[in-house]
Write a structure and sequence with these properties.
With 130 residues, this protein is mainly alpha-helical. The chain is built from 7 helices and no strands.
Length: 130
Amino acid sequence: MKHSIIIFTILCTTIMHADSGKKVFETYCWGCHHQTAMAFGPPFSAIAAKRTPEEIRAMITDPETVSKVLGYKRNAMPALQLTQKELQAITAYILSFKKITQKDENQSKESNKTIIKDPYPNIATAKEAH
């Protein structure tokens, strides 16, 4: 029961952050980022797949320095002056797009492989047979 209450509290907090994170996104990020598609900046799904919460927050508050640390040659993102609450909310919102883990992605690739029971005949072999 105690674990259920803790999980419920964490879930509610995450949902509230994601909802307020969407508002932060619509206010500050929408012009350059999209949730799942490439825009001027990378989509949140790509960011969530390869960045930690700390890296995301650092990139938002000090993109020039973090870009250099991460090895980017240039940076077009402006530093945003967000409150701690807004910063936590947008970070949670970005990370909410981390839906496919590497394991899930590999399983998806495996399940999408086409298996040909009777492969196409070799044309050279077919010509020789005539």
